[in-house]
Amino acid sequence: MATYVFRCPGCSVFEVVQPMSALRPTHTCPTCGAPAARVFTAPGLLSTPSPVHRALDRAAASAEAPQVVRSLPHGAPPPRRRRWNPVTGAAPLDAAHRPAGPHPPLPRW
Ligand SMILES: [Zn+2]
Known about the structure:
Layout: E1 2-7, E2 13-18, E3 26-28, E4 35-39, H1 50-64
Antiparallel strand pairs: 1-2, 1-4, 3-4
This protein binds zinc ion.
């Protein structure tokens, strides 16, 4: 589907969204019913913002020749801890920080 612009001689300019295969040189004006001629406009090409363009370039270069990384980049946030386990419902504990012995009694309601 594409958007085409038509100008009615008696009314104004209007847009029609239709498939390219259905495009005709004129379109019936939705207001007065007169045949309206097509207006040729610049194609609606979006310009990519430069940060996005640079990121896309880096991604393409990395796909061709990936960099070997041995450490986190400077200024990167520390890795996040795992939060919730769908089986136990609790956050996983490191063995070094796990409390010794049985867990404390559950509260009674
Ligand atoms: Zn019209």
